[in-house]
Amino acid sequence: MIESLPADLRRFLDDSQPRELVHAGARFRYRVLGIGPLGLLLLPGAVGDGESYFALAGLAARHRLVAIAYPHVGDLGTLLDGLAAILDREGLATTDLVGGSFGGLVAQAFLRRFPARTRRVVLSVTGPADPARAASNEKWARRLGRWPLAVTRALLRAIVRATLKRVAAAEDRAFWRRFYGDAIARTTRTDVTTRYQLSAALDRAGPPAPADLAAWQGTMLILEGDADKIAGAKARDALKAIYPGARVHTFEGSGHAVSAERPREWAAVISAFLND
Asked: Quick one: pLDDT at residue 36?
């Protein structure tokens, strides 16, 4: 049960262990919480690290939570193989996945590359990869690489403020603005450009074909907000069409930041699915 967002975040940071792994020249940072036999990769959105999903700390009784901070990597294969290397290091043959927004695209790509290592997948407020969007992401990677970092950070703060406007409680909204504000203050130009390069690589790969997952025996949960303007209705419908066997939970009246707008309910739905 989430009682205080700042206190629960601090507890997650105090109880988890920060670790690093260098794979193919890329430095992966992540946090591990729990000693359970089941892996759980936490793949955050484009801003912030895996501890943004601290509301899921209760799953550490059965899972070993691995909260990812994305490395400075623009190559999709290096990212996915690095995530698999982290699982190897932690002794996890298989894993569950929770991916939100950008992290939902990463989760789908991991499932496609490593279906035998993937048990259950939660896709939160995300859509499918779109090859038609790749060129735009490549353009933004080049453009933001030339912009003053202060301008890029200001743009990110404006996007975060707009995304969080549906968080009802003023105290909670202030917490999340501080949380993501701190993350943006740590953001470097390389963080931004490689994130857009990864977005382009994810889109170029496209969504999985039915044959890609024909042998996969796992289960999937799709979480969506029906007022989400970023993962809009077209993207949400496309995602459900690609994964027709997935369970779907719709948060009525919620937007793109459902994990911040309704963290207790969001965590409870995921916990029920993963503990089923």
From this structure: 82
